[in-house]
Amino acid sequence: MTHRRLAWALSLLLLAWGNASARDAIDLRDLSLGMSVADIPPKEYINLTCAAKEGVKLSSWNDFRACPPNEMGLHGISFRFNDEVNPLAAVNGKYEGTKLGGHPVLLKGLVDSSGALRGIRIDTDPSARLFWRKKAFLLALSVRARYGEAGWICREAESHDGENPVGGLLIKEHCEKLSERRRLILERYLYRRADQPVSDFVNATHLIIEQTTDR
Q: Which of 12, 121, 153, 179 is the most interior residue, by most CB within 10 Å?
């Protein structure tokens, strides 16, 4: 196993369980906010597409300008992990596919006009198997452990008529934290809407990692 692959494995485990020594440098595997997309290893991430322009495929991160910028001037690129260069995927199905802490996720990188990675969005995959969708809200706990429990400012969103608990829990939580030139926005949801059958429910974790301008 190469040194790079060992580093990958460590970074993936750090997101799930947390480790203070790596929090300040790594945001996702070997991706760090502020890095140039030209420095992203081309084989480590696959299925690059424009997040806001359906059907537009990219041959590399350097093609980010093909994706329309959002209101902040950032170009969104959806991507997936490449199992072929992930050593954990070969030995443990928990890490096969695009997963964090064992949870199937959807990933998006936000790139500015200079080609610098300024943000990462992580969403639990709503099309995952029911087994994982039932646990999606738990990914937020791993995120909080990853970035530290202190300093989060949280509020509960108001529940609407007809929204019911799932398994005795009703969660609609929005949290934010400033950490090492990063703004973290973390949301988790667990409830059933009035129009949903017993077999269906809302269960999700959403994380946005933004680079702040303070130096």
A: 12
pLDDT digit string (tens) for 50-98? 999 888 999 999 999 999 999 999 999 999 999 887 666 555 556 568 9
Helix (H) / strand (E) element for 80: namely strand 75-81
> What pTM, to 2 d.p., does this model score?
0.84
Q: Residues of 91-105 as b/e, b for ≥16 C-beta within 10 angstroms? A: eeeebeebbbbebbb
Report the distance separating Cα 3 and Cα 12, nearest Å: 14
Task: Output b/e per residue, 152-163; b: 16+ Cβ within 10 A.
Answer: beeeeeeeeeee
Angle at 52 between CA 24 and CA 48, to 5 degrees: 65
Continuous H helices in the chain = 3-17, 87-91, 130-133, 139-147
DSSP H or E stretch at residue 205: strand 202-211
H or E element that contains 107: strand 103-111
Phi, psi of 4 (to 5 degrees): -60, -40
Concatenated DSSP letters of 22-52: TTTT-SBTTB-TT-BGGGS-TTTEEEEEETT
Report pLDDT digits (tens) over 135-150.
999 999 999 988 899 9
